Amino acid sequence: MTELTPLGRVHLLTNYLINERGSKEFLPEATTFEDAFEVFRALVNVRDPKPIPQEFLNEQDIMLQGMLRLEGVTRAVDLEPCPNDPKIRLWRGDITTLEADGIVNAANSQLLGCFVPQHYCIDNAIHTFAGVQLRLECHDIMQQQGFPEPTGKAKVTSAYNLPSTYVIHTVGPIANGNPTPGHRKDLTNCYTSCLDAAAYHDMRSVAFCCISTGVFGFPQREAAHIAVEAVRAWLAAHEKADIVVVFNVYTEQDYAIYQDILGA
Question: Is the pTM of this model over 0.85?
Fold first, then answer.
C-alpha cells in the first residue's frame, strides 16, 4: 500500500468532507499543501458535530501531528519565570504549539468552537488543530448540560492533537469596549474558574490566552490587569498548589502590556 504524501492526505480528507456536505462550494484546486490545508480548515470550521469514520480520524491525526512536528513545540516548564512571580511565565507565541497540562480557550456560550471559515480567533485555531474530535466532545458536554455555558465558568476536555493534555474552555464577558463592574467580575471569575478546574484535574501547568480582548471587546490593558490580579490572588490563596501559570500572548502590543504589568 502506497503511503500518502501530505498533499495527498489533505486532499483525501477534504474530498471526504466535501462529499459529506453534498456541496462543491469548497472543491479544492490547490496544488500546495498550505493552500489545500486552508480548504480543509474551512470545511472543518463549518462542520456540525456528528459522527465521523475512524479512518478519517486516523488520517486527520497523522496530518495534524505531522504539522505540529514541523512547527515545533515549546514546553511551558522550560519558560523563564517572571522576576517577581516564580510561578508565572510570559510567552509570546501560538498556543496550539505550547506543551502544557492545560491551555485555556476563549470560547463562546455554545462551546462548539468558531464556525466562521478560516477565522483566526483562538477558538477557531484550537478546534482546528485539536481535530474534529474536540467539537464532538464539546457537543456531548453541552447536550448533557442542556443550556448555554454561563460566563465565567470553565469546562475541561481532552486536547487531542494539541501538545497540551487538556483544553479548559471559558466564556468571557462581552464588553464591547465599555466594561462594567459586572464584566470585570465575570472576567476575574474566568481566571479563577480555570485555575480551580486545573487544580481539580491535577494540572501542573496552565496557559491563559487573552480572554475577552478580541471580538468581545474588553480593553487589552484593563483585561491584562484583571488577569494578573486574579492569578496572583488565586496563587496566594493556594500556596501549596504546584502549578505554573503562563500568560500566552500573540501580538507585540499584548506582550508589551504584560511585560509592563509583570515586570518581566
Answer: yes
CA dihedral over 61, 67, 72, 78, signed as positive or negative:
negative
Backbone angles phi and psi of 171, in degrees to 5:
-100, 115
The three grid cell numbers given for residue 74, joined into one nine-digit string: 515549546
- Closest to 107 in 3D by CA, of 197, 169, 52: 169
Going by the DSSP 8-state scheme, the letter that residue 179 receives in this structure is -
**Which strand (E) or helix (H) includes residue 106?**
strand 102-107
Q: Please tell me the distance from the alpha carbon of residue 240 to that of residue 33, in angstroms, as a whole number.
A: 47
Q: How far is CA 10 from CA 20, 30, 156, in A?
A: 15, 10, 29
Cell for 131? 481535530
Q: Measured in Å, how far apart are the chain's first and last C-alpha atoms? A: 53
How does pLDDT run along the chain (264 residues), one tens digit per residue? 468 999 999 999 999 999 999 876 666 567 899 999 999 999 999 999 999 999 999 999 999 999 999 999 999 999 999 998 999 999 999 999 999 999 999 999 999 999 999 898 999 999 999 999 999 999 999 999 999 999 999 999 999 999 999 999 999 999 999 999 999 999 999 999 999 999 999 999 999 999 999 889 999 999 999 999 999 999 999 999 999 999 999 999 999 999 999 987
Residues 6+ apart with CB under 8 A from 79: 89, 90, 91, 244, 246
Q: Which of 91, 99, 74 is nearest to 251 (CA)?
A: 91
